[in-house]
Amino acid sequence: MTTHTTGGSRERILARIRAAVADAPPAPEILRDYRTIHAPDDPAAVLDLLHENLADYRAIVHRTDPAGVAALIGRLLAARGARTVLVPTGLPSAWLAPDGPAHVDDRAALTPADLDRVDSVVTGCALAVAETGTLVLDGGPAQGRRRITLVPDHHICVVRAPSQVVASVPQAMPRLDPTRPLTWISGPSATSDIELDRVEGVHGPRTLEVVLLQE
After folding, report:
1. I want to staple 208 with a disulfide (CB 3.0 to 4.6 A). Which of 59, 89, 105, 145 is the partner?
2. What band does 201 get if pLDDT is binned at 50, 70 and 90?
3. Torsion sign, CA atoms 176, 184, 108, 97
4. pTM here?
5. Mean pLDDT for the chain?
6. What percent of the chain has pLDDT over 70?
7. Do residues 140 and 124 make contact, with C-beta atoms less than 8 angstroms apart?
8. In the CATH hierarchy, which fold is given to the domain comprising 39-214?
């Protein structure tokens, strides 16, 4: 049975709630004296922790420097057998070798079927959180629209270290714009049924590779 609430009914319900809490004491002040970090105060240790937790979530993690990033990404695309790679408009050109797969530009006109035919996507990120092994995308120029990281089956995400690496979620929040489309990624897309059989690639890429670009 479906119950429909009219505008008048909704207002009566809200009025009763307001009356019920009218004499309630004010909400207590939110205490924020908790620890904001559990990792050592050492960028190298934080990067190692990020690497460990990304791998624990079944992401495939690589490390390189600016001189080697294009060759590394080229090898990853070749190993995947990628013939096409989706490229956000602001992705640094130095990250992709000129003799790699054909580029597909991130355009509003791309349909889900178009994105599904793309072999791989390469993006940057907004931040990476070491303690949770999480990548955060916010639709910036090097990341493109949210959908380009949800439909293709293979996602290579480049994280600049140490500038884009934070130890904890409390450290990440002040650096993120809540008005932007934030996507928090911990490992490749996965789900499990009632018997706990894990299935990957249901609502995102089946394979997530992370390149830690040590600047």
Report:
1. 59
2. low
3. positive
4. 0.81
5. 90
6. 90
7. yes
8. Rossmann fold (3.40.50)
